[in-house]
Design goal:
Elements: E1 2-8, E2 11-16, E3 26-35, H1 38-44, E4 55-56, E5 60-65, E6 74-77, E7 80-81, H2 87-90, E8 101-102, E9 115-119, E10 123-125, H3 132-135, H4 138-154, E11 163-167, H5 171-182, E12 187-191, H6 195-204, E13 208-210, E14 222-227, H7 232-241, E15 242-250, H8 262-267, E16 271-274, H9 280-291, E17 301-305, H10 309-317, E18 325-329
Parallel strand pairs: 11-12, 11-14, 12-13, 14-15, 15-16, 17-18
Antiparallel strand pairs: 1-2, 1-4, 3-5, 3-9, 3-18, 5-6, 6-10, 7-8
Amino acid sequence: MRALVYTGPNTLEMATVPDPTPNDGEAIVAVEACGICGSDMHAFHGTDPRRLPPLVLGHEAAGTVLTGTMKGQRVTVNPMVTCGACIYCIEGRENLCPHRSLISIPPREGAFAERLAIPERNLIPVPDGIPLAHAALAEPLACGWHAIRLAAQSLVRPVSDVRLVVLGGGAIGLGAALVAQVFGVKDIWIMEPNDARRAMLGRVAPFRTCASEEDGPEPGDSSLIIDAYGSEQSRATSTRLAAPGGVIAHIGLAGGEAGLDTRRMTLQEITFFGTYTYTNADFAATAQAIFDHRLGDFGWVEERPLESGVQAFADLDAHKVEAAKIVLKM
């Protein structure tokens, strides 16, 4: 089958690779759409020790089932495979399963390919009329759903009454802002330094946008911060922006450990927590919100053929892409 293969740092190539072989309980899905994630870019740069070449990347997928009891159904793919038996799985916190695996992390190949093997329990049927390129985005949007849900539980006042600042206008940050609207948040800022992307954000929804702290909300005046960058600089920004008693949800994975003003966080009782992926319930709720058209019209998505994947990665690397998400079509 055709696949886009990561062969070394900053190197991708179209290649023919063996068809996947399903294990017990798994189905083969004919992939029709797969989004490029920030973690795919980290792997492309050779900075993700979990993703070693040669490897098929991609985990934001949707397609049509070719085998098993769901044969013929259009589906979106929950790419996180968990054991279902540990205490975290039993509690409904599958994202913390110590035995979890993710497609695009060995030993599981990813979805920038014509076919994918995945447990049937990880597949959610997609209604007719919903483009699979949109259904594939249940994965990144579910990350925002999980973060907003946890943040709402940590806030003292209703989430609808707070100001939210999202740091980063890529798919994770924009997705968190769109999800926040579903949860009832009305006052939403997105801080995004890229001029073209910031202009796009203003067209997606009535968000207030800014390039930096200088033209954004006042320090100490925002009760909820979503850090979709996860860098030293963004963590420092988060602690300056957070209001007393505020909540910072750290979802980005840019790296590093520095940046937090722990003295201010202590004196102002600011809650900081990490948020990783999503639970099965979060993923299902996000998919349903897409099917119900509660997350917008996806005008922020650019579609390209799989064969253009090498150029798509290069364009993303050079910051030449206005869209918050590129989805590769098979």
